[in-house]
Amino acid sequence: MSQFTVPTRDQVSSASQEAFDGLQKALGFVPNLYATIAYSDNGLPKYLAFQGAKTSLSNKEKEAVNLVVSEINGCRYCQSAHTVLGKMNGFSDNDILGLRAGHSSNERLNALATLAKDVTENKGRVSPATLEAFYAAGYTNGNLVDVILQVSDKIAMNYLHNLTEIPIDFPVAPALETQAA
């Protein structure tokens, strides 16, 4: 059982209160996992700056990475949040389930999802074929670095939720059915 509760605005540092206000304005609420980061006096502003930094990946590509990594790490909170965000970025329910399983019917997104899956499962070590397919899909070394940064962003959030088990405040994503290879 988790010893964590979701802190309120009054229970966090002034820097985090400012971040709460920004999230409230942008999203209409402060997601529980973001609020939990605010246990660290500077954690939430630091994380939001990292998450919001410029990247060569589109929002759709970032969500593809987020869905794959969250599935591998078994983070129900992030699976749920990124199912909502994936839909907001144009993915269908089937697209989302496929990405969570590590693949896509879109060749470029498939190369990205396969790379993100391989990176996460193998702690940064990928097969030469996976890397070759990533580059063949038109991605660059800069994109590769941005994928690693996106994976690290999601791993941090996955681990935080898996440890704290704070309540999921998004519609809970359906479990991914085991699919035959």
Give the key terms.
181 residues, mainly alpha, Single alpha-helices involved in coiled-coils or other helix-helix interfaces, AhpD-like, 2 domains, 62% helix, globular
Give an overview of the whole structure.
The chain is an all-alpha fold. The chain has two domains: 9-51, Up-down Bundle (Single alpha-helices involved in coiled-coils or other helix-helix interfaces), CATH 1.20.5; 59-164, AhpD-like. It contains nine helices and no strands. The chain has helices at 14-27, 32-37, 43-51, 59-72, 76-88, 93-100, 107-121, 128-136, 141-164. It is globular, with a radius of gyration of 17 Å. The mean pLDDT is 95.
> What is the CATH architecture annotation of the largest domain?
Up-down Bundle
**Helix-strand sequence:** HHHHHHHHH
Over the alpha carbons, how many angstroms does the gyration radius reach? 17 Å
Would you count the extended β strands for me? 0
Helix content: 55-70%
Kindly state the mean pLDDT as a whole number?
95
Poorly predicted regions: none
Q: Please tally the helical runs, counting DSSP H or I stretches of 4 or more residues.
A: 9
Q: End-to-end distance, in Å?
A: 35 Å
For the record, the count of structural domains works out to 2
